[in-house]
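User: Fold both of these, please.

Assistant: Here is the first one.
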Amino acid sequence: MYSNDGFRELDRQECLGLPATAPVGRIVYTRQALPAVAPVNFALDSDGVVLLRASAASGLARAVDGAVVAFEADAVDAVACSGWSVVVTGRAVVVTDAAEQERLDRIGPDSWVPSPQEVFVRIEPELVTGRELVRGRTMYGLHLSV
């Protein structure tokens, strides 16, 4: 990023905290050798681990288990032309340990579409990046129309 492009690069701690304020995120993964994006509700565990809950029979759960994925969350104020975006990239793993599943059942996200058999997916934050739009519509003191 250029130092005067209106964006501020977020540090890792900011990036790991901001997604907790977003109601929805997106997971980016590979489906049939092509990029796929799905909106998901989520929760954050310790150290910025992203938690998803999915049907055990879902194509998403099968596609991401053991794969490197990206997770993105953001907030945008269209009127003020401000906001932030965070991307967490890391390996996704379907949780199989019974004790861990019980723990996550207490803290993890609730499923929007409950199914008889659900699994938790953990995304370990290996690469974490983010940026915030800091100048918005009045960048350089000029009013920029949309």
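And the second sequence with its predicted structure:
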Amino acid sequence: MATNRPAKMPDAMLLKLIREAERTGAYRFVAHAAQRLEERSISLIEIQHILRHGYREARKDEFKAEHKTWNYALRGRTLDSRELRLALTPGGPGLFIITAIDLTN
């Protein structure tokens, strides 16, 4: 049975949504993300920096059939040179941050 996938959001539109969500605080962490931030010692300031300055890593975007939505990958380097990837999805009037991965190690 084929799953009807919605089209992926274009880069410019996605980045505009991400930057606006960061600017206005219209983003939320799902429980999994909050747990990973703690486990990986990733701070809110680092997340905000990636939301402000990160770039889309489209090859890491992933369709979640159970939610019928795309999780988008945003990647960037923190001020102390940690390389992070965030998985996020548009939801409500902003974003849900699904997880954060430290790519430095």
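The beta strands are 27-29, 55-56, 62-64, 69-77, 83-91, 94-102.
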